[in-house]
Amino acid sequence: MGPRFKATHVVLAMLCVMYFITYVDRVNISTAASGIQKDLGLSNTQLGFVFSAFAYPYLLFQVAGGWVGDTFGPRKTLFWCGMIWALSTIATGFVNSLPTLFLARFALGFGEGATFPTATRAMQYWTPESSRGFAQGLTHAFSRLGNSVTPPLVAVLMAWLTWRGSFVVLGLVSLLWGVAWVAYFRNEPKEHRHITAAELAALPPRPTGAKPPVPWGALLRRMWPVTLTYFCYGWGLWLYLNWLPLFFKNNYGLDLKNSALFASGVFFAGVVGDSVGGIASDALLRRTGSVRLARLGVTVAGFVGALASLLPILFVHDMTIVALCLSAGFFFAELVIGPMWSVPMDIAPRYSGTASGIMNMGSAGAAIASPLVAGVVIDATGNWYLPFIMLMVVLLIGAVSAFWMRPELPFTDTVEALPSGKIVAAE
């Protein structure tokens, strides 16, 4: 009798768990921030600096990590990444100053920097082409589920083990995932002992011959509109992830438990948005056959919907209405995920790990700037709404820049398709 579960489904499930854990380990600090801020005596600006610490190596290792995943394969790359981010999470529980806290979060970004580009490489070979949007939407939905679960989970762990103990427990869970991944996954689907002939037949063909070096100049020129668009998405994501629990706690005087519950409710809207965005993009692709419509249609709708959802907070400050507006805004913003993470596979299938790393540099750059700007603005003005009002401008830029992406024009080693549609020889 064959295996009970398809190997392709198990691999996708393991990637979903990885996305879930990585976001728990990223956003746990936002819920624990009130305790950390009190124990270490940090201002909001210093806290914003700590929030951004994750993003410096995360930015650096988007392209480098994507190249490592392409070169050494997802099996080893994700295992060692898992070990690094797990140990850095555990180490956070033992910090005693601003510099040591910064270093622990810096190490976390180092460990997680290569994860998503490398996971995209794994999906490139383990997912049928017709299901790319669904796979990307589902895995990122689990990351948003991690966002949603983290505030109440960390609040409970803090009540039981203090904020320090919460980081140790969460880091140990990450270690277990890394061991399970390296034991089960194989870079080549055909080498997995449980994969079936039917599964192999549905997977995309592997490129033949020696892999050429990455044409960096041409690939960067193709991907910059994608990176800019993803920066605009990432600005809102990191604002939500880092400051939302404190927004409810400080702006409305809620205790830790209630502020965590409000933040959790907002984040849960993102779980739905990620799933819907990926499914909608794939459905449009099947119905119309247009890659451009399938990716840009959902992406632009997400940016515009998020902007429209946040507009009422300019006029109404009732906590329930604001929470609903923030939830709707996060839902629409997360529609962007499935189509956006499919774009690197559409544009550069042979370099999907590197291309997705270039794209995710946008989110990583936003992860540096967005928390810092928010912290400085809050300290300078005392206005907790102002960062979300600034976000509306960024969302508008993202909706416009999306039209410069050309996912319908596949990148090759010899031809570069510019955003204008003009074809020129690659360098």
Please provide the count of β strands: 2
Q: Give the count of structural domains.
A: 1
The CATH superfamily name is MFS general substrate transporter like domains
State the CATH class. Mainly Alpha
CATH topology: Growth Hormone, Chain: A
**Poorly predicted runs of 5 or more residues:** 414-427
Describe the main β-sheet briefly. Answer: 2 strands, antiparallel
Class by helix and strand content?
Answer: mainly alpha
Task: Provide the succession of SSEs.
Answer: HHHHHHHHHHHHHHHEE
Radius of gyration: 21 Å
Strand content: under 5%
Query: What's the CATH architecture?
Result: Up-down Bundle
The rough form would be described as globular
- How many helices? The count is 15
Average pLDDT taken over every residue: 85
Distance separating the two termini: 53 Å
What does this structure look like?
The protein has 427 residues and is mostly helical. It has a single domain, classed as MFS general substrate transporter like domains (Growth Hormone, Chain: A), CATH 1.20.1250.20. Helices cover 77% and strands 1% of the residues. It contains 15 helices and two strands. Helix 3 runs antiparallel to helix 4, helix 7 crosses helix 13 and helix 11 packs antiparallel against helix 12. The N and C termini lie far apart (53 Å).
What's the topology here?
Layout: H1 7-40, H2 44-53, H3 55-72, H4 74-92, H5 98-112, H6 115-126, H7 132-184, H8 197-202, H9 216-252, H10 256-288, H11 291-310, H12 319-334, H13 337-347, H14 352-381, H15 386-401, E1 415-417, E2 423-425
Antiparallel strand pairs: 1-2
